[in-house]
Design goal:
The complex is a heterodimer of chains A (193) and B (622). Chain A contains six helices and no strands. By secondary structure, chain A is mainly alpha-helical. Chain A has a domain of 133 residues: Four Helix Bundle (Hemerythrin (Met), subunit A). In chain A, helix 1 runs antiparallel to helix 5, helix 1 runs parallel beside helix 6 and helix 3 packs antiparallel against helix 4. The radius of gyration of chain A is 19 Å and the shape is elongated. With 622 residues, chain B is mostly helical. Helices cover 64% and strands 0% of the residues of chain B. Chain B starts with 16 loop residues before the first helix and ends with a helix. The chains are: A mainly alpha (193), B mainly alpha (622). Chains A and B meet through helix 1 and helix 5 of A and helix 5, helix 6, helix 7, helix 18 and helix 19 of B.
Chain lengths: 193, 622
């Protein structure tokens, strides 16, 4: 495939797809900021039912933080191997990243089921509403990331090459962003509980 | 231009319905945006006429209660999301790539997706009229009125999901504008030479990117409140209706700059061309756009002065709001200085652009009144506010949009809009507009609240309301003349040359209408007025000398052999994905069976899009 678009202007030389993902992620920052601010405003106004301090434990989210941070390392290695011309290693690391993402989602589901068992539901109080919404939207982003990584690693694998690493780099940008959002959520929701 | 050396590309089929459904050409997409906005303008305009008819006399019975609320809500929502924003996106789509010497937008298929998402999202929103009633809580959708307890029908759900679909459209088109304007400029076209319409489109794209997610999040929270029993905006359970207002206006105020900045860009293109002068204070006008964009994110709570925020918060937002006047006034003075001493040609685009300056100043001044907290307390939720924002959005944005359509119509169609009908249109629109909205200042000061569907006689509001209604019908007549002019000129309008106005910018260097690849050779830019460089020589500060510039102006780079031109291949998948999202949204409101169909369309469309090469010719070469 020929280069996506010739860069006509000398001032800014960056692949247009990469810039597009950066700009999209900038927009996503405001989306998650809106959700996190809503959480901060509301989570202490519980009138009945469990509060953040009562309902949340640190075990699963801490493991999940480790998992996501490790997955970012795997993503970096996937890109590095592709640039070195080692496509098979790159795909293996991409699959590792996706697998870690799936592990995160499974643990998140376990955590949710524990909450539900203990009576914390989205409708029990404002803390429940805000908690499930913030973490749910993040989990949905992780799920989208897993699907995206799998379609690059499996569906588009023949297109991957050291010259055409932008497919991995763009999904990598998204994945690292979703990681960073988790770090923010981990601090705001779990550590500050 | 010496184009003989360039191998012209294979042009894809340009006739038939399928060619429109699969087009990825920024010019055709721009036309689709403009036509769609025109269609929704008819609906939104009719809604306005219903409102004004109901309010013409006291105790009128034309449109009462909930029906009035529905029409009022849909008028506002339609004009903001389905008329002003898309018509500006349409003009931007058509004109900006030409202005910057690009062959297309950075992501042609994403561009097609954006226009289909707009058209389908608009239809989805209006479908609510047929499926159980339109939204009726105002375009701002204040909680908790929008909660399930108070709005039981599906109208609010159509509104929530419709705005989400339109938001997706806006976000994708903004990503596209940013990448296009930053990456695809012609050689030599530095940001310091970028035409003002491209500048304001760029700033607007950033405003959309940073404002839209806030309302998107708020709409999700509201949807969850309505259907999952969450309590975000439910005060009884610790929720906070003010949270909705903050999230909404953090979007809502930048939104008004989203609607005005590209309009200012159009005026900054039209006034210099028809004054036959360079724009006065180019740098100041460009940077003041950026300043308005920045300050625009710090003023949202001036929509909330009456909700009881602490005084110090009100004072901050009051001061920040007044600060907007500085960059705005810089622009106004520069426009006036541009016209000053120019050889002005009073053609229709100039009339509308000049009227924009005058009317927008009136809207800006009443905005300064509203930025003062005590004045706002006095007139909040009265017709004074209605007068203010119609002076900025109609007297401002809409007058500039019409100026832009008269200005670029010859480029888009190869024909002029009729000048005599244009003057008639201008007279009707100018008189009708001021007759409709100027009396509303007085009505507001006399205490007439907005959003009410009727009023009692004897309050002193009768004659001004009747006057406003008469004005509204004159205004409507103006738009009838406008649409008639467009229809007539498309068929029998005077043929326009490539450069009918003696323009400054690159779009006038190619044919009218332009070929699918825009330019056989990408022009090299040496100044802020590259088209004049080709036409005139002489001291740039003196009157232009009408003498064709020599070969010396076509310099290095331009004679270098160009790479072969490849046009992006048409694709149906953007439309399929947009349809999938719309069907999915329909499933959420009506029957669940639509949900899997929508997901299937979306998934298939996305998979086919990802595997279909954008440039099949280039792919087969390599």
């Amino acid at each position: 495939m020929a280069s996506h678009h010739p860069v006509a202007s000398a001032e800014i030389a960056v692949d247009s797809r990469k810039l597009g993902v950066w700009v999209f992620l900038a927009s996503e920052v405001i989306f998650f900021a809106s959700l996190i601010v809503s959480y901060l405003v509301l989570h202490n106004r519980v009138t009945s039912g469990p509060t953040a301090h009562e309902a949340l434990t640190l075990t699963i989210p801490t493991i999940n933080t480790m998992i996501l941070l490790t997955s970012s390392v795997a993503m970096v290695l996937a890109l590095a191997h592709l640039r070195d011309g080692n496509r098979r290693a790159s795909i293996a690391w991409l699959l590792t990243t996706a697998w870690l993402g799936i592990c995160f989602l499974i643990l998140k589901a376990v955590e949710y089921s524990q909450h539900l068992h203990e009576g914390l539901t989205p409708s029990v109080n404002v803390f429940g509403s805000a908690y499930y919404t913030v973490t749910g939207f993040h989990a949905a982003h992780v799920a989208v990331g897993v699907i995206w990584i799998l379609s690059v690693a499996l569906g588009l694998r023949r297109r991957l090459s050291p010259q055409n690493d932008v497919l991995v780099e763009t999904v990598g940008l998204y994945w690292h962003f979703v990681d960073l959002v988790w770090v923010a959520i981990f601090m705001v929701v779990y550590l500050l509980r | 231009m010496a184009s003989s050396a360039v191998a012209l590309p294979r042009v894809y089929e340009e006739r038939g319905l399928l060619s429109w459904l699969t087009t990825v050409d920024h010019k055709r997409i721009g036309i689709l945006y403009i036509l769609g906005a025109g269609f929704f303008a008819l609906i939104g305009g009719l809604e306005a006429l219903f409102i004004r008819t109901q309010l013409a006399v006291p105790n009128n019975q034309v449109l009462v209660g909930e029906a009035y609320n529905q029409v009022l809500t849909m008028h506002g929502t339609t004009m903001v999301f389905l008329v002003v924003m898309p018509v500006l996106a349409g003009l931007g789509n058509y004109v900006v790539p030409l202005m910057i010497g690009a062959r297309d937008m950075a992501y042609p298929r994403l561009n097609a997706f954006g226009v289909w998402m707009f058209l389908l999202g608009g239809l989805f929103l209006n479908l609510s009229f047929l499926l159980g009633g339109a939204p009726d809580a105002g375009w701002f959708g204040y909680a908790p009125l929008t909660a399930k307890t108070f709005s039981k029908g599906t109208g609010i759900d159509f509104w929530i999901l419709g705005l989400q679909l339109l938001g997706i459209s806006s976000i994708t088109s903004s990503i596209n504008f940013v990448s296009t304007i930053l990456l695809l400029r012609a050689p030599g076209l530095t940001l310091n030479r970028l035409p003002l319409f491209a500048w304001t489109t760029l700033v607007t794209a950033f405003l959309i990117l940073f404002a839209m997610p806030s309302i998107s999040a708020a709409l999700f929270l509201l949807f969850l409140d309505r259907h999952l029993g969450t309590h975000f905006f439910n005060p009884a359970a610790g929720g906070d209706p003010l949270l909705w207002q903050h999230l909404f206006w953090f979007f809502g105020h930048p939104e008004v700059y989203i609607m005005i900045l590209p309009a200012m860009g159009i005026v900054s293109e039209v006034l210099p061309v028809f004054s036959r002068k360079p724009l006065f204070g180019y740098t100041a006008v460009a940077y003041s756009s950026v300043a308005i964009g920045f300050i625009g994110f710090t003023v949202w709570a001036h929509h909330m002065f009456a909700v009881g925020l602490p005084d110090v918060v009100n004072a901050f937002f009051s001061a920040a709001s007044m600060l907007v006047a500085v960059p705005t006034a810089i622009k106004v003075f520069n426009w006036i200085a541009t016209i000053w001493g120019g050889a002005v040609r009073y053609r229709t685009p100039f009339l509308f652009a000049a009227a924009f300056v005058a009317l927008f100043v009136i809207g800006g001044l009443s905005g300064l009144f509203l930025a003062a907290v005590p004045v706002d307390w006095q007139v909040t939720d009265t017709y004074f506010v209605v007068a203010h924002f119609h002076y900025t959005l109609f007297g401002g944005s809409m007058f500039a949009i019409v100026a832009g359509i008269y200005y670029w119509f010859p480029k888009i169609t190869g024909r002029f809009l009729d000048e005599r009908l244009g003057r008639l249109h201008f007279a009707l629109q100018f008189i009708g507009f001021n007759l409709t909205f100027f009396p509303m200042h007085f009505l507001g000061l006399m205490g007439m609240p907005r959003r009410i569907y009727t009023y009692a006689p004897g309050l002193g509001w009768e004659s001004l309301n009747l006057l406003a209604t008469i004005g509204a019908f004159i205004l409507a007549l103006g738009f009838v003349v406008f649409f008639a002019n467009i229809a007539r000129s498309l068929v029998a309008g005077e043929r326009a040359p490539d450069d009918p106005w003696d323009g400054h910018t690159l779009e006038w260097l190619t044919s009218s209408p332009p070929p699918p690849y825009n330019f056989a050779r990408i022009p090299v830019v040496h100044s802020r007025r590259p088209a004049w460089d080709r036409k005139y020589t002489g001291n740039p500060h003196a009157r232009p000398v009408a003498e064709i510039a020599g070969e010396n102006d076509r310099q290095e780079g331009e004679d270098a052999p160009e790479k072969p031109i490849h046009l992006p291949a048409p694709s149906i998948w953007p439309l399929v994905i947009a349809a999938g999202l719309t069907v999915f949204a329909l499933g959420l409101v009506t029957h669940w069976l639509f949900i899997p169909i929508g997901i299937l369309l979306f998934a298939v469309g996305l998979a086919r899009w990802a595997t279909q090469p954008l440039f099949p010719e280039a792919a087969s070469h390599s």
